[in-house]
Amino acid sequence: MKNLEERGHLLTEQINPNSQNLDQLTSLELVELFNREDAKTLSAIAQAKLQLAEAIDLTAEAFGRGGRLFYVGAGTSGRLGVLDAAECPPTFCSPPELVQGIIAGGAGALVRSSEDLEDRAEDGAEAIAHRQITELDVVVGITAGGTTPFVHGAIQSARQRGAKTILIACVPTDQVSIEADLDIRLLVGPEVLAGSTRLKAGTVTKMALNILSTGVMVRVGKVYGNRMVDVAVTNKKLHDRALRILQDLTNLSREEAGYLLESSGRRVKLALLMHWTGLDAKESDRLLAEHQGNLRAAVQSCKTS
User: Is 262 marked active-site?
Assistant: First the structure.
């Protein structure tokens, strides 16, 4: 592997032969070129499907032990991790501490570029220590080019603390290698705009994080069928979604679904269990707890008892 300071050989830094006349294209030709190049993200995900499935299982097992999931990155990679983490509580009613995003430069780097801060490996290690990461946790290092010192420092520190570590990068292992429990490479090739990894690399990373976090939440019982039955009912849109989920799964009228939702304390999963079993809110809550929040398992236990 070449020195991390020398990045010209990296796949993410190379020149894309399909876009060498980028500044001469019409707007329509630009859109068509981006469309062709973005299609490569799908094959990259397909090539990494076994590793992504393993990441889902590894993280779900960690949640079962009381562990947490951390995304670590800088720049676009860091922002994508923070975004995915921030969307878990409203989608799955998960506690904010369950999935967390760590970005080089902290909250300020979400809205203003802090590129120089990614060069400090010690800051990555300090971020891991600050969050008191342990052997129960999973740390996902996200670095498109694979060389970000902040991410390297975080992964090394997490490994020293016994945490499970996952690397997501868009360069092959022979260009950059990092010691991690699971190595996921999303190879989309050179960018349309050379070196701008907020493009295909960012897109494929967002896809991978969507798959990882949603897959984990499915595994731990926060989904019934394809319904987000643990949705947090915190605004009008989500209240409407909750009512539609109840109507779809119970054939109740909207008014009846509304009454059921309120009687459950606006907890869709609890409302469904109450409706299907005839139990009150307290007993349904106890039954859900017995089955670690898995609605299907709780319903099945009533059918077999």
Answer: no
pLDDT at 232: 86
- Do 36 and 157 share a domain, yes or no? yes
pLDDT at 63 over 70: yes
Task: Please state the φ and ψ torsions of residue 136, each to the nearest 5 degrees.
Answer: -80, -20
Query: 240-243: long-range contacts (C-beta < 8 A, 24 or more apart)?
Result: 242/266, 242/268
CA distance 82 to 102: 7
The verdict on 172 and 111 lying in the same domain is yes
How far apart, in whole angstroms, are the C-alpha atoms of residue 172 and residue 120? 23
- Of the listed ranges 22-31, 105-114, 129-138, the least confidently predicted one is 105-114
> In whole angstroms, what is the distance from residue 176 CA to residue 63 CA?
30
> Which one of 54, 87, 126, 256 is the catalytic residue?
87
Report the alpha-carbon distance of residue 18 to residue 45 in Å, rounded: 21
1 assigned to some structural domain = no
Domain boundary at 163, 194, 219, which?
219
Looking at the domain assignment, is residue 3 inside a domain? no
Q: What is the number of H-type helices and E-type strands within the chain?
A: 12, 5
Lowest mean pLDDT among 95-104, 117-126, 158-167, 184-193: 117-126
Average pLDDT, rounded, for the chain: 94
Q: Which of 118, 122, 191, 262 is catalytic?
A: 118
Residue 276: which pLDDT band, with cuts at 50, 70 and 90?
A: very high
Indicate the number of domains in the chain: 2
Q: Residue 58: what residue type?
A: L
Question: Residue 250's domain is classified under what CATH number?
Answer: 1.10.8.1080
pLDDT, one tens digit per residue, over 128-157 is 999 999 999 999 999 999 999 999 999 999
- Its domain, for residue 282, covers 236-304
Q: How far, in Å, CA of 101 to CA of 290, rounded?
A: 30
Reading the block at residue 65, the tokens are 């032990």
Q: Does the annotation mark 118 as catalytic? A: yes
